[in-house]
Amino acid sequence: MRVLLRQLVWPLVFILLATALYAGARRRRDFVDFLVYRTAAERAVRAEALYRAEDGHYQYKYWPAFALAMAPVVPLGAEAARGVWYALLCCLLVVFIRRSIRELPDRRLPERTLAWITALLLAKSIVQELVNGQTNLLLGVLLIAALVAVRKGRTALAGALVGVGMFVKPYAIVMLPWLALVAGLPAVATFAGVVAALLVLPAAVYGWHGNLDLLAAWYRTVTDTTAPNLLLRENISLAALWAKWISPGRPASALAALSAVALIGLWALLFSKRRSVHEPGYLEVAFLLLLVPLLSPQGWDYVLLLGAPAFVCLVDRFREMAVGWRAATAAGFVLTSLTIFDVLGRTLYVRATEWSMVTVGAVLLTAGLVHLRWRALA
Q1: How far apart are CA 60 and CA 217, in angstroms?
Q2: pTM of this prediction?
Q3: What are the start-end ranges of the H helices in the chain?
Q4: Which residues have C-beta within 8 Å of that of residue 35, sequence separation ≥ 6?
Q5: I need a surface site. Which of 112, 190, 308, 370 has the fewest CB within 10 A?
Q6: How many Cα neighbours within 13 Å face the side chain of 197?
Q7: What does the pLDDT look like over 87-129, one tens digit per residue?
Q8: Could you tell me if 370 and 290 are in contact, meaning their C-beta atoms sit under 8 angstroms apart?
Q9: Structure confidence by residue, pLDDT tens digits, 283-335
Q10: Could you tell me which of 266, 270, 233 has the C-alpha nearest to residue 374?
């Protein structure tokens, strides 16, 4: 009986916290991103235009097929749909954190310890993900599942999972180099087939030319809204960092591109040492997921949630890192996790976001991952 009670304590704590957060969210942000998806779904089932400038900051920016995929929430009604979506996100959160921990090779720390430390470090991103009704958790689960599929030799399935991920968030494309190098042609071919099929799918509702018009409108929406969003406090992309440091323009864009190339080069360096460990895939995928908010010009701070595998790995191996690297990694944790208004106060928070300190912290964490591979720790 005591064992059963101990097993029930933490799920009950999680449910209570999730319920309290839901109640608070209904009074504040009210699932604004989820409402974007639901509005797009309503338009999609009526074959209406998805991408509208009059929607302002909350324009739909995902591919047309995702709007159709969200169609089942339309009949539920707005209130019921919020509750169902929130419950789904809570389940996905548990799955994503648990899989991120259980797939880590040669784990040193207990699962529960890693779960709580990771949750605390990512608390800001988790809360934002849940109260906004975002989809990063869904993408994270798909991409971790792709890693598992590759480990099991199911390369075609891995390609399909990454392909589906593209329609949840287009920046799932970051996984394609790893997929091509590790899983080979079958995975890439399946990925391409899934992407092609889902690109064509909306033609069943909009017609062929209507679907092409939608894809063109998606491209215009994404490109037209990128520049105005670079200076927003929540944007932690490399493009935003340079725009904030030296003001938007060609020099900032060039430096952002060079920085992106440098980080991709770090990943290539990490990949080149994969023979030094017996299960290299986890760290390689963790690095790529951590890159997502840095490479995407509209990389919001809560997208750091995708970096959960990187946080898990760094926490688990922290005591084995060299002293200097431990200091750099700890600084990365502080900058990414504690740059919060309620912690810093208005003045420090504004300064920290103006100087893109979260971005700096994320870059420090990428360097820590390279150090782990260099010392054959992961």
Answers
A1: 10
A2: 0.92
A3: 2-27, 32-45, 64-69, 78-102, 111-121, 123-132, 136-151, 155-168, 176-183, 185-200, 203-206, 208-229, 238-246, 250-272, 281-295, 308-317, 323-337, 341-354, 357-374
A4: 58, 78, 133
A5: 112
A6: 9
A7: 899 999 999 999 999 999 999 999 999 999 999 999 999 989 9
A8: no
A9: 999 999 999 999 998 889 999 999 999 999 999 999 999 999 999 999 999 99
A10: 270
Distance CA 33, CA 131 (A): 9
Q: Where are the beta strands (DSSP E) in 107-208?
A: none
Assigned token pair, 129: 């993900």
Q: Which amino acid is at 319?
A: R
Nearest Cα residue to 359 out of 182, 217, 239, 261 = 239
| Interatomic CA distance for residues 336 and 358, integer angstroms | 5
**How far are the Cα atoms of 118, 281, 338 from residue 124, in angstroms, in the given order?**
11, 27, 8
pLDDT of 24 higher than 70: no
Mean pLDDT over residues 219-238, rounded? 88
CA distances from 293 to 196, 265, 288 (A): 25, 17, 10
Strand partners for 300: 235
Residues 6+ apart with CB under 8 A from 65: 167, 198, 199, 201, 202
Residue 210 CB-half CA count within 13 A: 15
**Could you tell me which of 293, 313, 268 has the C-alpha nearest to residue 144?**
313
Whether the pLDDT of residue 250 is over 50: the answer is yes
How far apart are the C-alpha atoms of 159 and 162, rounded to whole Å?
5
Closest CA to 136 of 105, 101, 102, 97: 97
Return the bridge partners of 235, or none: 300
User: Quick one: tokens of 205?
Assistant: 């509702």
